[in-house]
Amino acid sequence: MSAGNPKEWWNFVKNEKKKNGSANELIDIGKELAGWYGQGHRDLPWRRDKDPYHVWISEIMLQQTRVAAVIGYYERFMRELPDIEALAGVEEARLLKLWEGLGYYNRARNLKKAAVILRDEYKGRFPEEYEEILLLPGIGAYTAGAIASICFGKPTPAVDGNVLRVYTRLVGDPSCIDSDQTKRAVRDKLCELYEACDGNTRGTLTQGWMELGATVCLPNGMPSCETCPFLKKCVAKREDRIMEFPVRAKKKERRVEKRTVFLFLQEDRVAMHLRGSKGLLAGLWEFPNVLREMTLEEAMKQTEDWGLGPDPPVFEHPYTHSFSHVEWHMKAYCILCGNETDRIDEIGELKWLRRVELEKTAAVPSAFRPFLSLLQNGGDRL
Question: How many whole angstroms separate alpha carbon 308 and alpha carbon 189?
């Protein structure tokens, strides 16, 4: 058997399963992972019970966000929206404010859409079957697998980047993990493992894969192999090829957009613009901005054209914000305004919000929040 050939490795596992019944490597993998997880893992608030609402909200929040950053958001969210009924009834503006800083705001909107379905069609209860969970808005294969296995003991693995990294190192699989075909293949193989385990163990396996990828088989830098339950089985470790896995597709370079941002101040109020209902950052509050870089002279002329007075900026500040597909290179001008205007027709209606409103009620995306910090700090550099 070639150690680096995942098909041969898994065929070996299946043959051992046929020959030896429960005493086979497939079962051993599950036992070792479940035992390792049971010996000690992070105490995270959404792990303290098997409530599908808790698992659901945490998994959506954790997408592309570090655990340490999510804990505070999760606890605040649960204090205000503790169940499906509360989430289904929340106003969108309040929901977006609770989500502020997590990004990908359509995820929050989909949470509410799904909660309405759960309230109206399922009497406020989560369906137990993977296929039904998968039909809910905003829930993909990973989240559906996590909910079904952790909460209901179903044989449905949750395959994300952590699991793909651990698996490809374990078996020495050179397949590109960004390929849907690879993801399906890994999920199918892990389904065999889950089918061989009882319901209680399945949820533990899902948590174990997550924990192993997050704390031992790390995405950046060398993993902590000596603490891994698969130390003796891992092909990548045995062949000293750990950093060759996982194989990823080359990322496309982000498109760069240059923007000029205007921080208009009117006593203790700030001029803000509410973005439309579609597109990037839909429904969120932003500082008025123009899709090009302006010199100081151009910015002052633009300010005068908007009827906001000729006074020069108090300060200017550059800032770059990266989205998944585009990078905004911004330069902000902070300009003090008189009390003579509350509209700028050329860039849509503005609303003059008090700074306390911005903090308590208005959802401002991460792309613009550094400018709020500048205003609070009197223009100090970030």
Answer: 64
How much is the average pLDDT of 22-47?
A: 87
Structure tokens at 74: 């999760």
Distances (CA, A) of 109 to 33, 130, 170, 271: 35, 22, 37, 26
Which DSSP helix (H) or strand (E) runs through 273?
Answer: strand 269-274
Q: Structure pTM?
A: 0.86
Question: Is 346 annotated as catalytic?
Answer: no
Q: What is the pLDDT of residues 295-324, one digit of tens each?
A: 999 999 998 888 887 688 888 999 999 998
Whole-number mean pLDDT of the chain? 89
What pLDDT digit, counting tens, does each position of 85-104 carry? 999 999 999 999 999 999 99
| Catalytic residue selected from 25, 32, 59, 211 | 59
Counting every residue written for the chain, the total comes to 382
Cα Rg for the chain, rounded, in angstroms? 25
| Cβ atoms within 10 Å of 142's Cβ, excluding its own | 18
